[in-house]
Amino acid sequence: MDFKHELGVDPEQLADDADRLFDRMRRLHSGTEATARAGSGNGWVSVEYGSSSGVQGLRLDPRAMRMDSAQLAETILDLIHQAKEQAEAEERERAEALLDSGLLTDRGLVTEQLRQATGTLRENLERASATIDRVRALLRP
């Protein structure tokens, strides 16, 4: 069966695209994680956060110990959230750069080809099902 003709999609091209996608995903995960730092305005508290490992470091200046405990806790949590958002944003940018660098550049075209292939495949399955039903009817006594 000529899949390219029958389905309107070149299976070898799809396999090559999938290989490139998985290769890029492997490179994305094997690389160093994105790391971000956030610090308080007065410089007394700072946090380092890794996109996959979470909080990597917390630095407290001795003067931070003079802060009210609730204020210190709130400052630490705020800085963790800031650093986390920065690290995750950097990680997203890396992923987008890897995934958008030439892979499936015309997404509309790919979507339309997949939609057509799905329709053709569905028609072929319906025809095959009808043929099986006719064969069964012939085999019944």
TrEMBL record:
The keyword Coiled coil applies. Keywords: Coiled coil. Residues 73-100 form a coiled coil. It comes from the Bacteria. This is YbaB/EbfC family nucleoid-associated protein. It comes from Nonomuraea guangzhouensis.
